[in-house]
Structure formats: structure tokens, C-alpha cells
Design a protein that fits this description.
single chain, 201 residues, alpha+beta, 50% strand, disordered N terminus
């Protein structure tokens, strides 16, 4: 009987030590999570997030952006894709959800902000155009208008996705061609990267 209790005591001690090591590993994994970088694709309404951790495999599952939880798609090299993002002048990423080594999903606070100013500054010059009066991009003419805020003319068959009263996406065959939006009194056109590749050819 004494041997039995001695064995059980030793087993419990080893179990607790193992549990402590596991807890410590999970704490370290959570603390290793960092949101390093991002890329915003306005016409496609996506945000790519560069989230690193000490895990050998993709463990990030979702994020909370502006109080809404969104699932992420792993793109490789610690990049994750966030799709169907509502248009906004700023994005506040508060929590990142990750999968632990035992398969449990937990959250970790990151507190990361993305402003539209940051997005505008980061966009390539060949994709972003400021419209003072009117511009021609491919088969489209985009004009600034005081009453309608923007007028778009083209011989192409296109549709307009009105995200907000200050932001539209122009589509051909359900594919984004460019986005147009007004911010702080300035009208901008952002070409979809796929459209720019065809246009520059």
C-alpha cells in the first residue's frame, strides 16, 4: 500500500511538472506572437497580416478587427489573409486567436492600428492616383464632382459596388478594376493589381 501511494505521489508530481512545462510553453508561444506588417488591397477588400510566432507551423486562426472576429487564411511565410473587409477610415486589431500545441484556441491581445493615412502612404505610386479634376485610367474616365462626389464614364460594361457614400469599387465581370474613395476632401483612385498588370502590358 505504501508503495502504491508512493507511486501515485511520484506520478502526480511528474504530472504537475509536465503540466507546468506545458503551461510555460504556451505562455511563451503567446508572448512570441507579433503583428509585424500588413498590406491592404482596397479593390479586393483584403488585408494581409504578417503575424510571427515561435511555432513551426501556422497557428493563427482569426483576429478581431473593429470589434468583429474574422477567420484568417494562411498564405505562407507567416502571412495570413483577411477577406471581405468592410471599408473604414481606420482598423483596430485588438486580439489574435491562435491554436495551442494541444489544439485549444486561445486569444492574445496585440493592440495594432491601421489608419487610412497609413494605407495611402504605403500604396505603390503606380496603383494610387489623386484626382484633382479628372483622370483617364484604361477605358475609364473618373471625374471629381461637387454634387455626385464622383462621375465615372466608360464604354466598358461595368458595375459599381457602393461600399459607403464615399467609397466605391468598379467591377468588370464581377472582378475589381479599381476603387475610388474620398478622404479628407481628396478623391483617390486605387487600381486593382491585376488590372494594372493588364493595363501596363
Amino acid at each position: 500500500m505504501k508503495r502504491f501511494f508512493g507511486f501515485m505521489s511520484l506520478f502526480m508530481m511528474l504530472f504537475m511538472l509536465g503540466a507546468c512545462d506545458m503551461i510555460q510553453d504556451e505562455i511563451q508561444r503567446a508572448q512570441s506572437i507579433k503583428l509585424e506588417d500588413y498590406a491592404v488591397d482596397i479593390p479586393n477588400r483584403t488585408i494581409s497580416l504578417h503575424i510571427t510566432s515561435d511555432a513551426d507551423e501556422p497557428v493563427i486562426t482569426s483576429v478581431i478587427v473593429n470589434d468583429t472576429r474574422y477567420d484568417l487564411e494562411a498564405e505562407g511565410d507567416d502571412w495570413y489573409l483577411l477577406s471581405d473587409v468592410p471599408v473604414a477610415t481606420s482598423y483596430r486589431i485588438t486580439d489574435v486567436f491562435y491554436r495551442t500545441s494541444v489544439g485549444v484556441v486561445l486569444s492574445y491581445n496585440v493592440g495594432f492600428d491601421i489608419s487610412l493615412d497609413d494605407v495611402i502612404d504605403a500604396l505603390p505610386q503606380n496603383q494610387l492616383t489623386e484626382v484633382e479634376d479628372e483622370i483617364v485610367i484604361g477605358a475609364y474616365t473618373v471625374k471629381s464632382d461637387e454634387e455626385a462626389w464622383v462621375v465615372i464614364d466608360s464604354e466598358e460594361d461595368f458595375t459599381v459596388m457602393e461600399l459607403e457614400d464615399w467609397a466605391w469599387i468598379i467591377l468588370e465581370d464581377d472582378q475589381p478594376v479599381f476603387a475610388v474613395f474620398e478622404y479628407l476632401g481628396v478623391l483617390y483612385v486605387v487600381s486593382a493589381s491585376s488590372f494594372m498588370e493588364d493595363y501596363l502590358e
